[in-house]
Specification:
single chain, 266 residues, alpha+beta, N-terminal domain of MutM-like DNA repair proteins, Helicase, Ruva Protein, domain 3, four-stranded antiparallel beta sheet, 7 helices, FPG_cat
């Protein structure tokens, strides 16, 4: 599933390929992806306009289309963007196709159709409506610590809670906790202040590095978990093997030697 680094990569890609181009047409091949807006309303907001600027919050990408409207994209588990030449065929999984005056197209692909396209007047209002926490790269250390301490449960599932911080999913929480040497099932109330501070630092470090490599796991440093994220793989620190378990119903990859499970409040 695309997480914060992938969405930031999509945002920069859209900025690089598609801003300030007049939109000639909008097609939606599966109206199921539309949330709270009809195809007619979406096309009316986009046609003869252009994408003016973008912003991101967590896993959501907002595109200013003028006249006080923003198109908001969520990518679900399989979504992505492709800017294609006029002669290129549409992707098999293109669910929304925006055609520009120059003939080029921006395809919103979503194989499993779990993503959604919205049209809103105010992105901040949508963030409030969805009860999203601060963006994981924007929140400060003190605010993160305060919010984390107010939550219960295992640290992995807590970090994935979008009301705590927005943008983290299954993949990057594993990496953050590996870098912080915290077992994914560790209860939040078993973490001491140094643990929480380390998790915050590693969160920022991992997300920034993932953005640098455009969300491609194989391009992450070999000292990171992501290139080795499979059950039985060698620990990148040479401390044993990577294990797979389930934490609050979700897969978790970790090294038991590097990330011993906490047995009591520290």
């Amino acid at each position: 599933m695309p997480e914060l680094p992938e969405i930031e990569t999509f945002r920069r890609y859209l900025d690089h390929t598609s801003l300030r181009q007049k939109i000639r047409d909008v097609a939606v091949t599966r109206e199921r992806i539309l949330k709270g807006v009809s195809l007619r309303q979406l096309a009316g907001a986009l046609k003869n306009h252009s994408f003016r600027k973008t912003e991101r919050h967590g896993k959501y990408l907002a595109v200013d289309v003028g006249d006080g409207k923003q198109m908001v994209l969520h990518f679900g588990m399989t979504g992505c963007l492709h800017y294609v030449d006029p002669d290129d065929p549409d992707s098999r999984y293109a669910r929304m196709i925006v055609t520009f005056d120059n003939g080029h197209r921006l395809d919103y692909d979503n194989k499993r159709m779990l993503g959604r396209v919205r049209l809103v007047d105010d992105f901040d209002d949508l963030i409030d409506e969805l009860e999203l926490g601060p963006d994981a790269l924007e929140i400060g250390a003190d605010a993160f610590d305060e919010r984390l301490r107010s939550h219960g449960g295992a640290i992995k599932s807590t970090l994935m809670n979008q009301s705590l911080v927005a943008g983290l999913g299954n993949t990057y929480t594993d990496e953050i906790l590996f870098q912080a040497r915290i077992h994914p099932a560790t209860p939040v109330d078993a973490l001491n202040p140094a643990d929480r501070k380390r998790i915050y630092r590693m969160m920022r470090k991992v997300l920034r590095k993932a953005i640098d490599v455009q969300g491609e796991p194989d391009r992450m440093p070999r000292s990171y978990l992501l290139p080795h994220r499979s059950d039985g793989a060698a620990c990148p620190r040479g401390n044993g093997t990577v294990h797979r378990s389930r934490v609050a119903g979700r897969s978790a990859y970790y090294c038991p030697a590097c990330q011993p499970r906490a047995g009591r409040k520290r």
